């Protein structure tokens, strides 16, 4: 039944909203009228007592009588309220949920109505990355500002931002040089490969972006949620570094345009000799670049809204510049224009532009012309004389400033096709992100690809090849080479390219800090947490500072051609993992993979991934290796020190698929003896405070496993699962914490059962999955079992031994486990002694070998003892055992201990008698209460009768004399005493005790100084009536030994001499 909360507020009946003269109610007649407001379990309070669709109820005082029932409806339609008249419970409409959902009302707080769920989804808003953390951080009573619904469409929200980010400095400053150096065919190949890479990546990105809501964070959010926090953090930081270096590259491009084509007189450093020109130019780039970076960072810090307002202006500059190129190309096709050249030796013909058909008929720009540093730029048909002076562009020659190659040009050009993530980064501002992102991004890529491909053809057709190879336009009076083609004036493209590069730099300095802030707020990289903070409005101040410092490193490089390959690496790595994420999700066919964008295929994603990887090593193999190493280091750091996140990523799904495949392979047959290793099920017991009683069991397990194989740590909680579910979760967390503390890699399992022995039996039967099941059980020795009034502890122990034997599992029981060494306590030189009494499949041979792999036991030598009877040839046994160990490749000292037949000693009889007397006493203690009262009455009656009969008698000696023969018999050892005692004791118990005593004497004599003794564990008796005796036998067998490991094999061979 839902809980009802009453809040009584005095008011007047006529003041109640919704009450009219015609609307009946339940009102009060007294002056102290009041109304009752009900609050449901969901804590919904209504300030209006009677609202539309809900019934009103007022309390009646002592002299009040209800006179009307409420049928209030705001729309005028009479409808009876759900308030029950003559019902003392008074259930409100909100509390009653719905008559049709009465079956589910008790679970409504954890399983809400569908209408509630849909209403919650309808109020969903696209918040920035880490939205949940922001919501949790907000105070409960804080009123949130009404957020505007996103209204941006495909064209304004995705297409134009992508165009602005893709078109950049390379198009204006380097594309002509790329075409002139590589030739039209190879330039088309470079552009086509790079555009294919981004197109395939855009297809994969569209599939991921339409598979659910993608908050701001763009590629980082998509990769981290698809490939997990490790890959997401590594690639996210690489993408951040790429965006930051892109800002540096755009600033360097703007400075190059400023100092070479707009205001050459503004140079601060001027070289007096030709040799220092390059160094002076680099210094100018560093100074002006640092100034520009400072100004841009201040603009971003002041407010992003100014950057967004300028974005449209910068985009207009880009579009106007590109249109001027096409216009100039069309003009040059119908009019032979001349561009005055500076040098006649390098350019014998002053015609820098020719007609399209004439240019391609002569094939002058089709083929590549790669140059080495210092080579003279010249026409192939008109070679220039070789100069003897050092290269300088002040002389009547133009020299190549760097050595060119196809791979170098790929690395320099690739940044001009990046920027395809701009649409996904704005997903929070889009009206329909799942429709706009694929269409806008792919259309932008197709548009830019068409522009690049056509520009290659136009540049090759309209400009002389030797001029194209002039990177800085020295041959055309220091003008921008692409400016010679623009119409109506070269200044159109110079000014347009300057502002477009400034705008692209501002966009990079705006986006990179937000990406770093998103990574920091996800809390997957601990040392980046400080960068998650910012100004009160959420602006990432500290992240902007770090971004500016990293961008300054790029500006100090001061060369556009050296910075471009660096950011190419980071962008290519990001695109590679976007393709990998899409391919992985598609192949795994996870149920949540349902993208709205259906024009994708895993083969396209793999092709894009291969192209990205190939471009990384083609452009610069050493930069590629450095980028991969950086990403790998970040991956491992997050794996070991980062916060654990569960984002439903594809790597988790891949692990699941790989585990399923491996488990099915393991099911094909039982493991071969060569592959056998102990797969442990460690049974732990928790105390009343839910702490592990014997944590050294986990320590021993870690030493035995050394991080290999399967380890399951289990415990049993007695009780009812329905009532003890929370306790089971707490116990599971305790086990996990203890496993982490002891550095045990494995799984934990907690079972709730009515009885401990049943729970252990269920755990032994059901733990593991398929071929990954335990084959060895480790449990502790029941401490102080003799003093325990409750026999359940040792009975559970014996029952577990029986269950493991029935399941054909090996059993390890460390005795005195608290004395075993910890992981930080390596044993000094000593011995691990193995007492091989019966064959158990070789477990006793294998366990010391495994223990000695661990640093704790590494210095211990191994000794193997075996027992020879009278009829055995001990000398031959020792030789055979040494040969066996040689074939097993196990180094150990061998000793055969001869046990002669001897009479049963008096000590054996004494221990047997004590054992049987104790067993009888325990049986009497376990009598029921009624039986115990009857027994006490019988003893009382017997004592009273004895007292009556003994009055006046002098038979004390006779009553005490019963001990005389016993005392004499104790002193009189030998066979006669044995026969006397055989008459009153079970002969099988005597023989077992004799064996335990004799073996214990031999073991203590030989192994009293051993670091660890491994011993065959005898099985329990088939008759449960002798369980107490079995525990006594084991106690006698191990008396006087400091550390003992009782071993019981599982019935199968675990070690072999064959390879």
TrEMBL record:
Q: Major location, coarse class?
A: membrane
Which InterPro entries would you find in this protein's record?
AA-permease/SLC12A_dom, KCL_cotranspt, SLC12_C, SLC12A_fam
Is Glycoprotein given among the entry's keywords?
yes
Task: List the catalytic activities from the record.
Answer: K(+)(in) + chloride(in) = K(+)(out) + chloride(out)
What membrane topology is given?
A: Multi-pass membrane protein
Cellular component GO terms held in the UniProt record:
plasma membrane; synapse
The biological process GO terms on file are:
cell volume homeostasis; chemical synaptic transmission; chloride ion homeostasis; potassium ion homeostasis; potassium ion import across plasma membrane
> One GO molecular-function annotation for this sequence?
potassium:chloride symporter activity
Q: Where is this chain's protein located in or outside the cell? A: Cell membrane
Composition bias of kind Gly residues appears in 961-977
Q: Locate the region Disordered.
A: 1-78, 924-987
Using the record's annotation, list all stretches that form the Amino acid permease/ SLC12A domain: 158-681
Basic and acidic residues bias (residue ranges): 928-944, 978-987
Name the family.
Answer: Belongs to the SLC12A transporter family. K/Cl co-transporter subfamily.
State what protein this is by name: Solute carrier family 12 member 6
Q: Which organism is it from?
A: Oncorhynchus mykiss
UniProt lists the gene as LOC110531493
């Amino acid at each position: 039944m839902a809980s009802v909360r009453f809040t009584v507020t005095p008011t007047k009946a006529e003041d109640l909203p919704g009450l009219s003269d015609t609307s009946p109610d339940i009102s009060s007649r007294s002056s102290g009228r009041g109304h009752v407001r009900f609050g449901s379990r969901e804590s919904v309070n209504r300030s209006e007592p009677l609202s539309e669709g809900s019934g009103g109820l007022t309390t009646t005082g002592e002299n009040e009588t209800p006179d009307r029932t409420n049928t209030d409806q705001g729309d005028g339609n009479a409808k009876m309220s759900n308030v029950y008249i003559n019902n003392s419970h008074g259930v409100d409409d909100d509390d009653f949920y719905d008559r049709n959902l009465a079956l589910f009302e008790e679970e409504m707080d954890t399983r809400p109505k569908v209408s509630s769920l849909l209403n919650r989804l309808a109020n969903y808003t696209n918040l920035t990355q880490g939205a949940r953390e922001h919501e949790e951080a907000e105070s409960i009573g804080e009123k949130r500002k009404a957020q505007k619904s996103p209204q941006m469409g495909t064209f304004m929200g995705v297409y134009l931002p992508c165009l602005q980010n893709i078109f950049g400095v390379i198009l204006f400053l380097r594309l002509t040089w790329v075409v002139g150096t590589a030739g039209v065919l190879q330039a088309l190949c470079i552009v086509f490969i790079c555009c294919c890479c981004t197109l395939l990546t855009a297809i994969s990105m569209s599939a991921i972006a339409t598979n659910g809501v993608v908050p701001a964070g763009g590629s980082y959010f998509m990769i981290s949620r698809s490939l997990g926090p490790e890959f997401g953090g590594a690639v996210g930081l690489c993408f951040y570094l790429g965006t930051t270096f892109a800002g540096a590259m755009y600033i360097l491009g703007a400075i190059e345009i400023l100092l070479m084509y707009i205001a050459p007189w503004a140079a601060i450093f001027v070289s007096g000799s030709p040799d220092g020109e390059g160094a002076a130019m680099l210094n100018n780039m560093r100074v002006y670049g640092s100034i520009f970076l400072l100004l841009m960072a201040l603009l971003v810090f002041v407010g992003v809204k100014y950057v967004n307002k300028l974005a449209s202006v910068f985009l207009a500059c880009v579009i106007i510049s590109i249109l001027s190129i096409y216009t100039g190309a069309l003009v040059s096709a119908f009019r032979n224009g001349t561009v005055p050249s500076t040098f006649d030796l390098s350019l014998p013909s002053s015609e820098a532009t020719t007609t399209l058909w004439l240019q391609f008929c002569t094939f002058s720009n089709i083929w590549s012309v790669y140059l080495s540093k210092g080579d003279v730029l010249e026409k192939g048909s008109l070679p220039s004389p070789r100069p003897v002076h050092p290269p300088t562009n002040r002389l009547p020659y133009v020299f190549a400033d760097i050595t060119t190659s196809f791979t170098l040009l790929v690395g320099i050009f690739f940044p001009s096709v990046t920027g395809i993530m701009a649409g996904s980064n704005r997903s929070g501002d889009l009206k329909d992100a799942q429709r706009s992102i694929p269409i806008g991004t792919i259309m932008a890529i197709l548009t830019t690809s068409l522009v690049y491909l056509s520009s290659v053809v136009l540049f090759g057709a309209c400009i002389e090849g030797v001029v194209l190879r002039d990177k800085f336009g020295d041959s055309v009076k220091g003008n921008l080479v692409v400016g010679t083609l623009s119409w109506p004036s070269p200044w159109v493209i110079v000014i347009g390219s300057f502002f477009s590069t400034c705008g692209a730099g501002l966009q990079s300095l705006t986006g990179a800090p937000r990406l770093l802030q998103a990574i920091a707020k996800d809390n997957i990289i601990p040392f980046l947490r400080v960068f998650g903070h910012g100004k009160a409005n959420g602006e990432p101040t500290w992240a902007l500072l770090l971004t500016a410092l990293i961008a300054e490193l790029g500006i100090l490089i001061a060369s556009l051609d050296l910075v471009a390959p660096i950011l190419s690496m980071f962008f290519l790595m990001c695109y590679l993992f976007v393709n990998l994420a899409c391919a992985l999700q598609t192949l795994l066919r996870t149920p949540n993979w349902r993208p709205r964008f259906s024009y994708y295929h895993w083969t396209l994603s793999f092709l894009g991934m291969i192209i990205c990887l190939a471009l990384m090593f083609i452009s610069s193999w050493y930069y590629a290796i450095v980028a991969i190493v950086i990403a790998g280091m970040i991956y491992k750091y997050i794996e070991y020190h980062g916060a654990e996140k569960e984002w439903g990523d594809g790597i988790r799904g891949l692990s699941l698929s790989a585990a399923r495949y491996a488990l099915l392979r393991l099911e094909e047959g039982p493991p071969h003896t060569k592959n056998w290793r102990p797969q442990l099920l460690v049974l732990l017991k928790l105390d009343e405070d839910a702490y592990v009683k014997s944590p050294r069991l986990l320590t021993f397990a870690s030493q035995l496993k050394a991080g290999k194989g399967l380890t399951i740590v289990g415990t049993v909680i007695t009780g009812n699962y329905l009532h003890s579910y929370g306790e089971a979760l707490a116990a599971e967390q305790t086990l996990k914490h203890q496993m982490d503390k002891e550095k045990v890699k494995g799984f934990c399992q907690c079972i709730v059962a009515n009885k401990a022995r049943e729970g252990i039996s269920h755990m032994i039967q059901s733990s593991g999955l398929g071929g990954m099941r335990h084959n060895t059980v480790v449990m502790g020795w029941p401490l102080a079992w003799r003093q325990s009034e409750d026999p359940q502890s040792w009975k559970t122990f014996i029952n577990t031994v029986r269950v493991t034997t029935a399941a054909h599992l090996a059993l390890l029981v460390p005795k005195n486990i608290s004395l075993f060494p910890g992981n930080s306590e390596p044993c000094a030189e000593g011995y691990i002694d193995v007492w091989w009494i019966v064959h158990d499949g070789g477990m006793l041979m294998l366990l010391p070998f495994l223990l000695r792999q661990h640093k704790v036991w590494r210095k211990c030598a191994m000794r193997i003892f075996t027992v020879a009877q009278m009829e055995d040839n001990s000398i031959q046994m020792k030789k055979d055992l040494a040969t066996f160990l040689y074939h097993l490749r196990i180094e150990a000292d061998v000793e055969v201990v001869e046990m002669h037949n001897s009479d049963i000693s008096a000590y054996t009889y004494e221990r047997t008698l004590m054992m049987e007397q104790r067993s009888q006493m325990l049986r009497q203690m376990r009598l029921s209460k009624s039986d115990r009262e009857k027994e006490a009455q019988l003893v009382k009656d017997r004592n009273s009768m004895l007292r009556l009969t003994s009055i006046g008698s002098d038979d004390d000696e006779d009553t005490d004399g019963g001990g005389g023969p016993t005392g004499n018999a104790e002193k009189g050892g030998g066979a006669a005493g044995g026969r006397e005692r055989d008459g009153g004791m079970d002969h099988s118990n005597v023989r077992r005790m004799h064996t335990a005593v004799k073996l214990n004497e031999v073991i203590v004599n030989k192994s009293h100084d051993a670091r660890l003794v491994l011993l065959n564990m005898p099985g329990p008796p088939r008759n449960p009536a002798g369980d107490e005796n079995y525990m006594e036998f084991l106690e006698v067998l191990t008396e006087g030994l400091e550390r003992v490991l009782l071993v019981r094999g599982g019935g199968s061979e675990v070690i072999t001499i064959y390879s």
